[in-house]
Amino acid sequence: MTDTKEILTVQNLDVTFARSAMKAVAGVSLSLGQGKVGIVGESGSGKSTLGRAIMRLLPPSATVTASKLTFDGNPLLSQSEREMRALRGNRMSLIMQDPRYSLNPVLPIGRQVAETAILHKGLSKSAARAVAAEMLDRVRIKDVARVMESYPHQISGGMGQRVMIAAMLLSRPRLVIADEPTSALDVSVRGEVLELLNELVTADGSSLLLISHDIRMVASFCDRIVVMYKGRIVEELSRLSDARHPYTLGLIAAMPDARHPVHRLRVPDRATFDATERSGSPA
Ligand SMILES: Nc1ncnc2c1ncn2[C@@H]1O[C@H](COP(=O)(O)OP(=O)(O)OP(=O)(O)O)[C@@H](O)[C@H]1O
Fold first, then answer.
1. Ligand 1 centroid – CA 56 distance (Å)
2. What is the pLDDT of residues 39-53, one digit of tens each?
3. What are the ABC transporter domain coordinates in residue numbering (predicted)?
4. Is residue 225 very low, low, confident or very high in pLDDT (cuts 50, 70, 90)?
5. Ligand 1: residues within 6 Å at CB?
6. H-run or E-run covering 234
């Protein structure tokens, strides 16, 4: 359910990269209370740039302007870098696409998750390890003790993303931005990782901004769907069936519907095929 209290307010957000004539994000406005909003659009539509602008994680080549950009009452564009560091990973977390690039390859998993607890909760080393173990258990990692001693290259992509989710949700952030959190994973584990993320943010009462190119998946998890095209919002929906914009309809048509697979064999001329079957003569 979407709560009326706004946690994130974005008004007229523009992002321009140096040496680019086009705005990567142009005049975007959206608000998020306690609920789940999906940002969808094809590659290059500005979804990730929007997510990173909110986290203030864009490179110096990006110019970001907005008439309002607030998170939990904090005016993000005028926060110092120190203030932003205190917010990031603590009250607002970003889960990225590929755990291989988010996890430090030379540190054991347990230490990486525990460090989040030391940094954001001010815990001692041993208390942080206990909290890390608890959190790894919460993301349903079996054999937590062994995984804590493992290095990122020793675990699967799906488990790596569970570890990232554990680290990013450990401080129970108010806002979680998940940028294509499963697209780098094996298809067989995508559904369960998303279910897990959904379950945890719901249990913790965190707000979720889910960035994806898969409009059907987003519709199945989110209360609201925001469709972006060339840096702009072209449509906002509560249900896919409300879609009217041709671009949104194109996105829906481009995504196969796993719940309604085609069972009947498509035959160009079914009447002729059926008649041949009945008479028993070869086609
Ligand atoms: N660091 C950067 N420097 C220059 N241009 C950038 C940078 N990051 C993104 N862009 C440009 O901004 C536009 C929006 O890109 P963005 O990555 O936000 O789109 P997206 O919808 O997230 O795409 P994808 O699904 O492929 O991640 C694109 O034209 C892209 O080339």
1. 15
2. 999 999 999 999 999
3. 10-255
4. very high
5. 17, 20, 24, 41, 43-49, 59, 61, 213
6. strand 232-237
Closest atom of ligand 1 to CA, residue 41: 21
The pLDDT of residue 227 is 97
Name the nearest CA neighbour of 5 among 64, 87, 72, 56: 72
Tokens 């086009």 sit on residue: 22
> Tokens 């080549």 map to which residue?
61
For 64, 66, 134, 217, 219, the CA distances from 202, given in Å and listed in that order, are: 31, 29, 18, 17, 16
**Which domains does the chain show, CATH number per domain?**
8-260 (3.40.50.300)
In total, the chain counts a number of residues equal to 283
Residue appearing with tokens 């769907």: 225
Q: What pTM was estimated for this model as a whole?
A: 0.87
Q: How far is the CA of 234 from the centre of ligand 1 (A)?
A: 18
